[in-house]
Every structure is written in C-alpha cells, then in structure tokens.
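Allow me, if you will, to draw on your knowledge of protein folds for a short while. I am sending you one protein, given as its amino acid sequence and as whole-number tokens for its backbone shapes. Kindly check, if you would, that the fold set down in the tokens agrees with what the sequence suggests. The record follows directly beneath this note:
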Amino acid sequence: MFSTKTINIAFLLIFGSFLLSSCAPFNSVDAKKYPPNPELRVKKNLEEGRGFRLSNSIKNKSGTTYEFASSNELWRASLDTIDFMPLASVNYSGGIIITDWYGNNQVSNENIKISIRFLTNEIRSDALDIKVFKKVCDNLNKCKISETSGELIKELKKKILKQAKIYEVKNKDKNIKPYTQHKFEK
C-alpha cells in the first residue's frame, strides 16, 4: 500500500493546488499595456504598488516595520480632533480612545470625558461609536456623572470623518506614482 509520508505529500499537493487555483478568477491581460521586457514589467508593477521585493525584506534584519496609527486616517483624525483634551487611555489594537476629564474655565463645576471606539477602519458614519460623559459637581464636591447625547457627538463624528477623508485623499495623492510609458526593447 501507500506509506503515510506519500499520502501526506499527495494531500499537501492537492490541497495546495486547490488553494492556489481558488485565489482569484482568471483575468485576461492585454499585452499592449505591459512591456515585454521582464525588468520593465517589474518596475511598472512596483511603481503602481502591485508587487513587493523579497530582497528588501531580507536586507532589513532590524525587525518588523509596523504601520498602524500613522496609516489609519480615521485614527489620526480622531486624535487630531480631541488633541486639546488629556488622554487617559489609547489602545490602537483594541480600537479605543478614552480622554481624561476635561473642563474649560468658563464652567468650573462641569467636566466632560469622551470615549471613541472604532468599529471599522473604513471612513463611514457607522465606523465610530462616540460616547460623551458629563460630570457635574456641586460645592460639596458631590458629583453626578451621566452619559449625554446630542449635538456634541454629531459634531465630533462629523469633524473626525471630514478630517479622515482629507487624510485619505492626501495619502492617495502621495502614493500615486505616474507610470511613464517606456519604449519596448526588442
């Protein structure tokens, strides 16, 4: 019969070919749009952001490069919007920003605290769950904390989404490198 090793290899080959064949549908390629020279094709693909170079990953032995908060427009816009408030907790991987109690000098017995929870990285109105808490203290330092709703939450969400969209447009403009058509080498 067949040995266990032969069965395992056959299984891996069948499973691997299934995975590779199911990655994406076959797309026909117009030969006029791509240069026949492999070096020019690689250069064009890299300029358009369609590939990566393994050699760059091997050369960088200092560790992994993390791109998180600086590349997430919604996160950056949220921090920029509430930058005047002290932060109590910021957790990018958990997707939450919590400010400390903040009060302006006009009303000394009222403070607010904001929590922003990220439900998705997409820039859309339901991507954020914003909660605003209000603390009102009397002269004897007895404080009452309540969650508020209304105009402040709408204004915060509107400002964050608007700023995130601006960041997204800037990033797209910055990352696009125009491809200059090279004459094909024969």
Observations:
- Residues 56-61, 63-67 have pLDDT under 50 and may be disordered.
- Helices lie at 4-21, 38-47, 54-59, 73-81, 151-175.
